[in-house]
Amino acid sequence: MKYLFIFCTLFLVFSSCNEVKDKNGVILRVSLDEQETSIMEIFKRIDIVPLETTDSCLLIWPDKALYVDSCFMIFDSKNPALFCFDKNGKFIRKIGRKGSGPEEYVDVYDAIYDDDNGCISFLSPFGELFSYIPDGKFVGRKRLPQKVNYQSLEETHGLYVTWTLPVSDKDFGISLISKDSLQCVKEDWQGNRNLASLYPKCFYKYGDEISFFRSFDKNVYKVSKEKMSILYRWDFGKDNYDMEDFGISMKTAKGEAEFSLLIDKLRNGTIPYLFSSQKQTDKYYYAQLIFGFNPHNTYHIFYRKLDGKSYFFKRTVEGLNLNPIYSNNEFMLCLAYKNDLEKCRKILQIEDCAKLDKMCEDDNPCLIKCYY
């Protein structure tokens, strides 16, 4: 019994050695040496949901999803609106419309579900929120504090949290805005504006907590009305880098030419990778890295909280390239087209293979519902 206790203690110590806690949050140690990873190592099962394809719901560039009342709401950044599908992928309605009318917008960059008000809110880059109830009825529009180029939106109890592109290094990127007064109650995050514009969807929500990340920063931060703190930090060992190594400050910009220099260094691989997306569930920390500034060179990290085991891969061994657009504690939603799914028929259920047989190559993508 004594030896069993010692063995169990040592097992727990060594199995969690990749996760270290310090005063600046949790450190997640991950190797960026690619591993052969089956999708079934991360998820218990996957279902596919083919999305109906008609002229009314043709998706161009879907890059985000909401899940409201068992309805999949797909945000298309090239045709800015929410396209709503039922649990079987049948098109229900479109929410939001471009135009110049009182219930229309010129453009919107982001969309959220507002838990406090039970409505969908779209963020206009010009500093307005356009709100609709989930059945598509327009509720109203709200004017946000004057800022340049609103990009990203989240919400928590009584607050909107927004990201705007800073004009100067002294401008704040994060604004916490009261839902009641629509006044800014706190601003945060200053830094080199040349590093601020890439991949502007920089928030994710886990429970009631809003997290913030940037493309060239290994830290992930907790957003709050108090002091912003580090929640966790990625440690890639020999593959870590600092922007200062390339003559670029995280705090201060060096003029317009620096942005062109940044893009060149990304394309030629001098700066090897950047963060394009991050999420968190009860089971995993997730990060998406893009190498060579090429969206076709996207890699995924799943870091398991239970034991610190990490998975780093571009495609699964089944040939599937994940494209996550939503995640909660039950499942992750990914997009895939017919050609991608043909490669992994052997892990699909019989009924999902039948769905795949009915699809055409130019149909809307499928949703892959990956259950944890």
Characterization of the model:
By secondary structure, the protein is mainly beta. The protein has a single domain (18-371), classed as TolB, C-terminal domain (Neuraminidase, 6 Propeller). It is built from 5 helices and 26 strands. It has helices spanning 2-15, 39-42, 257-267, 338-342, 350-357, and strands at 19-22, 25-29, 45-50, 62-68, 71-76, 82-85, 91-95, 110-114, 119-123, 128-132, 138-143, 150-156, 159-164, 174-178, 184-188, 203-206, 209-212, 219-223, 229-235, 273-280, 284-291, 298-304, 310-313, 324-327, 331-336, 366-371. The strands form 6 sheets. The chain has a 6-stranded mixed sheet with strand order 1-2-19-18-17-16, with no helix packed on it. A 4-stranded antiparallel sheet has the order 3-26-25-24. The longest helix is centred in the N-terminal third of the chain and has 14 residues, at 2-15. Residues 1-16 have low confidence and may be disordered. Pfam families: DUF5128. This is 6-bladed beta-propeller.
